[in-house]
Amino acid sequence: MLHALKYEDVRSVARDLGELLAHKMKDAGGPRGVIVSVPLSKPRRRERGYNQAALIAGALADALDWPKLDALERVKHTKPQTKLSRSLRLANMEDAFLSRFDFKSNKLPVYLVDDVATTGATLTAATQALKSAGARKVIGILVATGH
Predict the structure, then answer these.
(1) How much is the pLDDT for 80?
(2) Buried-state track 9-22, b at ≥16 Cβ within 10 A, e below 16
């Protein structure tokens, strides 16, 4: 499903994935929060035409009836992570994100949505940006993990 969403332009899959994540989150019983997606770089977004994580996050927010914020901006165009080692992935993502939202007055946890995590480098960099902007608690929400 993820391959179809990312590489075959089957955007309708995002709704199914968002609803599946919503069911899992309801079963887990976590607190209500704010949904934020990991952004693509501008060149990659232009190439693909959409951000798959944002589509999934939107569907998740709709299914939970929670707010979704486009709080993160990717300020550094990074190399694709797929063929990089763990240490290179971490270096590649360093300072890649900036929060456009001040979370200091937000008491809700931030649920950070991405499609896949392998080493956690992207989630780590995005979480650092959110925490720097005052987010108290950031919880990663993933469709899949890889190696």
Answers:
(1) 67
(2) eeeebbbebbbbbb
